Amino acid sequence: MTNRHEQGSGYGAVGWAQQTGLPGVVITTSGPGLQNAMSAVGTAFCESRPLIVLSPGVARGAEFADVGTLHETKDASAMVGAIAEWSRRVGSAAEAVAAVHEAFALFRTGRPRPVHIEVPLDVLEAPAGVPAADRRPRPLPAPEGGDTAAVAEAAALLATAERPVIVAGGGATRAGATLTALAERLGAPVLTTLNGKGAVDEHHPLALGANLRLAAARAVAEEADVLLVVGSKLGEAELWAPRLEARGAVVRVDIAAAQLAKNLEPAVGIRGDARAVLERILDALPATVSPPRALDEVRAAILQEIRETAPATVALAEEIASALPEDAIVAGDSSQIVYLALANVLRRSGPHALLYTPTYATLGYGLPAAIGARVAQPERPVVAVVGDGALMFAVNEIVTAVEQRLDLTIVCVDNGGYAEIRQNEVDRGMTPVGVDLVQPDWPALARAFGAHGERVDAVDELAPAIRAAIAAGGVRLVHVVQPAPHPAPEEQKDRP
Fold first, then answer.
1. Which of 211, 368, 419, 464 has the fewest C-beta atoms under 10 angstroms from its C-beta?
2. What's the whole-model pTM score?
C-alpha cells in the first residue's frame, strides 16, 4: 500500500501489526523518506510494536563523504538507532537475510520493538546468491515459563492473598484466556493499562477496564495485599501519576528482564512469556475457586470520576461508543475525546480493539492506524476517532483509504484547535497563542479526496450518523463540533 506520507506508512504498519501479531513492514527511500517515518518508529518503540523499516543507503565506501549525493544523510543508521531497538547497515545480501532473522527472533521471544535495516545501493543493485536454507524460517524455542522457584513463590503469595488484584499491560494481551482463568481462580479484579485494554473481556464481572489513570481505580491496585503485574512497565504516561504506591507484595511477570523492577520493585520477578508463566502459576495454585470481589461500588466510583473529569467530552464519547458495533476497532490520536473519555467509556471484549499511543502520545496516528487495521481486519468495522487538530496531521491519508477502496468511518471531534494546550496557557496567566486554529470545511475536504463528508450539529444526532456511515460503507467522515470547552483536570496539566 502506498501512503501519502511515510509517517502514515509507519503508523499504518503499526496498526496492521496490532491486529495480526506479525511485524509491520515499511519501505522508504533514503534521506527524507526515512526521516519522515521516524515518529512511527518512536511510537513503535514506546508502545512495544513489531515494526521493520527497510531503506537504501549510500554505496559502500561512500559513507560520511559529504559530497552532495542525492538524499545524503550524515549517518542514517545512527539516526534510526537512537530511537529504534536497533539499526543495521548490512554489507551483503546474506547479512540482510541474517538481520531479518534477528528481527523475527526479537519479535517472537523478546519485547517487540522496531528495527531498521539499511541496504547500501551497490548491494541492492547487485545479484544476490543466498542459499535457500538461509532464507527459510528458523525454528523458535518454546516460550519461557519462568524460573521454577520464582513461579512457586508467586503462587504461594497469591494462594494466601485476601485482596489480590491483577494489572495487565500490553505484554498480557495475547494471554487473555489464561489471565481470565487466573483471575477467576483468585477472585481477583483485573485492571489494565491502555495498551493492555481488552486483555480480559471488559464485560467480565472481574474486569475494571483500562482505568489505571483514574484515582478510584489506582486505589484498588494500591490497596491489594498481593498485586500481580503482567507485561507492564507501569510508566507515568500509563498511570497519570508518578508511580503506583503498592502497599502489599508485588509479583511481576515480563518478557524483558529489564522491565521487572521499573517503577515498582517486586517481591517476586519472573522473566518469561506471559501466557506460559501464568499457566504455570495457575497449575501451582489450589484448585479451589475463590469468591469474586464485590466491585459495584468501585465501578460506580470509577464512572463518577470519568464523568466529572470532562463532562461535555465524556457525553460525546458515550454517544460515539453507543453507535459502535461490539466488534468494532477504534483508532485514536492523543486527542481529548480519546484520552479523557473514549478510552474509559468504550468497553471491548478483546485486545487491540482500541489503537492508541498512551506513552508516545502522538498526533497523526489515528487515521493511518485505522487504515492499517482495516487492511488487516476487512470483516470488522473500523472507526478513526480524532480531534480536529490531530486530523490535520494525517488528513492526506483520506485519499489513501479512498484509493484502497476501504470501508472506514472517520469521526472528527472539533473543539476549535488545541484545547488542552489553550487551557494550560490560560491557567498560567498567558494569553493563548498558537492554539486557536483556522478550520477547513471538513465535509467538503473529505469530498475533495473522494470520500463522503457530513456535519452533525447536535450531539444526539452523532450516534445515528456514525451508525449510518458504518452501514453505508466506503470512506466517510462525520464532523461534529464539541458543544463547550472544559478545563483539563489537574493531573493532565503539563502533559507533553
1. 464
2. 0.93
